Amino acid sequence: MTCNTNMNNTQSFDFAQDHRPAGFWIRFLAYLLDWAILMLPVSLLALYVTNAASLQDLFYRLLVSVIIWAIPSTFFYTFFYTSWLVSRMQATPGKYLTGLRVTDNNGHSLSYKRAFFRYTVGYAFSGILFGLGFFSIARDPEKLAWHDKATGSRVIILRPLWLIAILILLALTIVQVFFWSQAINQITSGAITKQAGSLTI
Amino acid sequence: MEEDNLPPKPDEVLSDPESKDWTISELYNKSFKIVKSNPILWIFGLTVAGAGGLDFSNISRVFDSDSAQEPITQLLQSDVLGASVSNVGTGIWIILGIEIVAFIILALTISVIYSAWANGSLINGIEDTLAGKKATIKDSSEKSFKSINSLAWLQIVPGLALGLVGLGVFGGLGVLATATHGIAQAFLIILIFLITLIFLYFLIYLALSQIWASRMVVLDMKGGKEALVAGYHIAKKKKWPMIGLGLVNTIASMMVVLVPIAILGLLVFLGIMLAKSVTVLSTILITLAITLGIVAAIGLMLLGGIITAFKASTWTIAYKNIRGKYE
């Protein structure tokens, strides 16, 4: 038992020495990239919903949006986007494009259960005191957040792809700003506003 | 000889006179030292307080929508929404209903896991501190993984079983009571009252048993059912000291929380009272109250975590004192 513990500690130490831990800002960049990716379907649905010809049509399209994305996205995010991808690829798409990897303390992939725990309970734990668990990355010597410590995981920099990540984030942001401006334009200049206005009189 | 004539100390009155497994002062002194020097326990305490446990008296909050009813009713009176709703096919509503139910189940499952993990980590953290080590997120969390299933079982199954039985019994008797008249109705009402007392007895014992059971699950790696039965046996023998400790904990935590709230309330009250006469002073007082209110909100959150950790610590130390004695 002591032998194995010593070996694990040694492996852990070697792994930590070989790979630079990802700091707060690069992890935040990866998070923003993930957020931008997940917001793409929302932006497209906003275009779809605001293209309604009447209030009745708007209601119907909203309902369809809730059914095909709003609720299923929580399952998609919880079971696939975070837990499954992290257990298979060691990263979410945002982290992957930023050159980061999520591993256990020995550099191996997290199990599906542990990844699920990290992104549900772990994130809730880190967010409990106004996100102090996330900000603790900046102060921790090993750049570990509370959810990293709770699940025995760490985020390392495999390749410094932060510049590519920033460019992709910029591109996604521009695309989505365009979609949302179109959606707002559809709402303000469409028939819906006139119909809503006639109801309030 | 002279010592025998002295009146008992207040904290000794609340403990078992035959075998003093703990005293309030001993528990409080040790817990204060543990919690003071381990801020990690505050965080776990905050997590436990935030998770709130999933006892089924809270589940009605999920469906609480009194404040939302009015705007929805007004909207429903609109012809447009009425027409919109009727135009949507039944299949869509069914799919929406299934998705909402699935979402609620997912949220409740994660909430139960979260609460069980937080409880386990808090107890493990306290145990590490009692063993002379520093409580850390890593160690406390890693150890608590083994007990999540059993703690989740403890949180849900006994309460759910009791709740379903209560629903069945009271529901059935209530229906009978409304359907009958005269002596039969009076008899049923008396029966409902007696069954309520029996029900309360079980509720109290369930709460007391779960205190020990959760510690047995985390510290002794017992299964949920086995721990609950063992916890019940201890609770039967130690019910009055337990109720005493519970009351002291509740009163102490209320006093700690009420002081900052009282100060804030006083500031706001003074500000309002002075508003008509001395405007500058009242403005300062109200601004101070609002600023302090924001700081107090954060402080009270943390205080809630500290109090939860403190109470958990008293029970854990009490459990370690009686471990193996009454099973």
Estimated helix fraction of chain B: over 70%
Question: Low-confidence parts of chain B lasting 5 or more residues at pLDDT below 50?
Answer: 10-18, 53-73
For the largest beta-sheet of chain B, the strand count, sense and barrel status come to: none
Q: Kindly estimate the percentage of residues of chain B that lie in beta strands according to DSSP.
A: under 5%
Tell me the total number of β-strands of chain B.
0
Gap from first CA to last CA of chain A: 78 Å
Low-confidence spans of chain A: pLDDT under 50, at least 5 residues? none
Oligomer: heterodimer
- How is the largest sheet of chain A built, in terms of strand order? 1-3-2
> Biggest interface, and residues per chain?
A-B, 28 and 34 residues
Strand content of chain A: 5-15%
Approximate shape of chain B? globular
Mean pLDDT of chain B: 82
The class by helix and strand makeup of chain A works out as mainly alpha
**N- to C-terminal separation of chain B?**
36 Å
Cα-based radius of gyration of chain A, to the nearest Å: 21 Å
Per DSSP E runs of 2 or more residues, the count of β-strands of chain A stands at: 3
- Global geometry of chain A: elongated
Number of helices of chain B: 13
The biggest beta sheet of chain A reads: 3 strands, antiparallel
If you had to describe this structure to a student in words, what would you say it looks like?
The complex is a heterodimer of chains A (201) and B (327). Chain A has 201 residues and is mostly helical. Chain A is built from ten helices and three strands; from the N terminus they run αβααααβαααβαα. A three-stranded antiparallel sheet of chain A has the order 1-3-2. Chain A starts with a helix and ends with a helix. Chain B is built from 13 helices and no strands. Chain B has helices spanning 2-5, 10-13, 24-36, 39-51, 66-76, 79-87, 90-130, 137-144, 148-179, 182-220, 224-237, 239-274, 279-322. In chain B, helix 4 crosses helix 13 (279-322), helix 7 crosses helix 8 (137-144) and helix 7 packs across helix 10 (182-220).
